[in-house]
């Protein structure tokens, strides 16, 4: 996976977020301040524009550009969270990534999110989808799976993680002000993570 | 040394204003305050890059303290640190102080040359002034240590008014817990949830947040129940919250007009009467006044007034606290008995007032101190009524009237003073009526009512409509003879002969039509070309079944069995259901009753089957969908229906059917009950357009179709019938709905009956079109049966 393949992933993520913007916003309206879809779409539109203006030539440069753009343009908590993830991924990335290398990079991103948001699994946050996704990716590659199967497993794991947030009571972020009322809705951050992993399955996974 | 400050937040104007406020504190020694807030002037959001740039700009070499608002500001500020170069990053402190207080304290300290640690410490202590002022330093404001708590939002249209408050108090009293509430929006004090009067003084309006806290053995259960109740609008039916799934009739008890029986929106607002001399309106005489129409019908008669014996409390000493406590107890019992005889939601709230612990405790304590029972009761209720009077919301303020009405009722019992009476027969002119007075009027003696105050949505007005007494509301001058038209709001005081003649002829027309309808009510309705159409009644109680029989209903075309299931803690078993269904059949003299199986769902929730909240309950798990999920309850109902069917003619029908599978499954469950009498007819309601379009697929499985036009109309036109702005779409028979009905009749063929139960079936102009389509049975509100039969005869 080189910068071009990874750019395709990010562009697909941007496209999925744009198409699911209203759903993300609706989820966030139920339990937060209702801006997740709008914020992520604004940030990723800016990301795509930045990639168009000056295509990065290494994975590290790509992730840095994505991260910096997101922390500046998203506006909500997902800005510093996604932004930190991509900045950490930038720091961890080699010039060309193979499957296990990508898993390692994504693990760094997850660590960044956890460090920034101080959220644990079960807090009803994006961590609940990203953690199982990273673990599925690692397990798949450790078991010798090809990238198609591995990314599909990661996307499925993210989906399941997201579903598991539905009954949870939020303990972090704006939704935590709602207490028990936050139960019954999927977490919007976990939902956008599933889009990120679906984008990976359909681009990076297809490349294999 | 000057430490720089950075405000990181979501809103640029807010951050700038906070910075300006803080700068005022250091006029002599400007402190660098940089703002990094918002994505632009208007867009809320935080930007880590902008924060890192602001930090760089604010640093003079002595370091920077960053204050943040909330949420992503904190995360973005932390992220910003990562973007800074090493030496600067070491000089930055992120300070969790409250933004405004912290910034002011920080600016003062920075201006005085403090270090960044001192600046941050002073900022953190910025709340001290406020805490000292309120004496809350060191404790959690408004939270008890060991208690359980929660916060809910009030969703009721009119806030937490009498009915929902009564429900809340009634429910929470059942728990072994001390439960208290406060209004977070008004910063009210904590009040006991066991006291209706205190709960109402919270002034909780729609959108307000109510905090609840509880202690005691069942504290958790009480708080859970409270949260659940709040989510359910405290049991207020959707009708009251203005998003109704309309009942199949709105015309209950008002034979001619277009008035909702539950006091929903009315066509014309209540207003001052206007003299319409200029310009003259056709058909209305120059001396006619205009009031707000409130209850339809025409009434002419001498003005009579309410004679209200004064409640004079004699100045006499207490007979001793024990005797006085007894007097009060007896009077409360009497009042409770009187109120208990009246039917209506409002009287539930009145009964609750009589059991209000807070109010009773206060009155009883006064008696113990040597006050007489009447004085103690009057003083306490006056105090409570005054609390309501002081509330800002007019709806809640009007609850003072409820308190006064109940107070007077008890005082009358205490003093042995009879209730208000009407001196004579004719048109009652009154300032306003208490609900109890409205409920007690004798329609034989009182032809109509003019209320000077009040509104068409008041309890009194609703009760008058329900009871079929014509009424208007307006500041009508005194007079000897009054003529009024409660459908138009026209009123004539001491009318000139020609005006009186006009009202008389209106009344005659009206009377002729309804008399003719009434005299023929019991006869079968046959069209001019000899087709007999069964006209039945839609009923929801044994009392309505009696009304249906009185009005000549040929059958009960729809028995809404929900009334047996709602507002109770457990589902009725087959025995109880059987008894009630038999009582309905008896009241109808053994005519066929069409029992609709339970039409529940999250729009009509059952207390014992908590429903998941659905984004759109009208499109959710309702009707047969609900029954097929709650199968044991469904089987129990089918068992009761089969037992009744062995003794009296019964049809059973399933509501909200969408696919043939549902009918097949429901019939299978019916068969499992066993031993079905051959006379039991099984049908389905057609309310879902999909079912209408596929009617032919259902015909093998049903004996009849019953078209619920209210729901079929709203689902076909995607227009909610409770929405006053959509009346053009939802009133009358839309051509699209007409086509669906025609299709069902075609599919049904001559073997299967097609009935229409719904408001449309009572519309004289629509009846010919329904019959032309092939409908052979109509079912309407009991009071509309006679006029519907007339409409059939004219077809």
UniProtKB/TrEMBL annotation, chain B:
Chain positions covered by the region annotation Disordered: 236-301
Keyword field: Cytoplasm, Kinase, Magnesium, Metal-binding, Phosphotransferase system, Sugar transport, Transferase, Transport
Classification via CDD domains: PTS-HPr_like
Start-end of Basic and acidic residues biased regions: 237-250
The EC number(s) this enzyme carries: 2.7.1.121, 2.7.3.9
GO cellular component terms listed in the entry, alphabetical order: cytoplasm; membrane
Residue span(s) of domain HPr: 147-237
Protein's UniProt keywords contain Transmembrane: no
InterPro entries tied to this protein: DhaM_N, HPr-like, HPr-like_sf, PEP-util_enz_mobile_dom, PEP-utilizing_PTS_enzyme, PEP_util_C, PEP_util_CS, Phosphohistidine_dom_sf
Entry annotated with the keyword Cytoplasm: yes
GO biological process: one example: phosphoenolpyruvate-dependent sugar phosphotransferase system
Compartments it resides in: Cytoplasm
Essential cofactor(s): Mg(2+)
GO MF term list: metal ion binding; phosphoenolpyruvate-glycerone phosphotransferase activity; phosphoenolpyruvate-protein phosphotransferase activity
Reaction(s) catalysed by this chain's protein: dihydroxyacetone + phosphoenolpyruvate = dihydroxyacetone phosphate + pyruvate; L-histidyl-[protein] + phosphoenolpyruvate = N(pros)-phospho-L-histidyl-[protein] + pyruvate
Subunit structure: Homodimer. The dihydroxyacetone kinase complex is composed of a homodimer of DhaM, a homodimer of DhaK and the subunit DhaL.
Protein's job: General (non sugar-specific) component of the phosphoenolpyruvate-dependent sugar phosphotransferase system (sugar PTS). This major carbohydrate active-transport system catalyzes the phosphorylation of incoming sugar substrates concomitantly with their translocation across the cell membrane. The phosphoryl group from phosphoenolpyruvate (PEP) is transferred to the phosphoryl carrier protein HPr by enzyme I. Phospho-HPr then transfers it to the PTS EIIA domain.
Family label: Belongs to the PEP-utilizing enzyme family.
Protein name: Phosphocarrier protein HPr
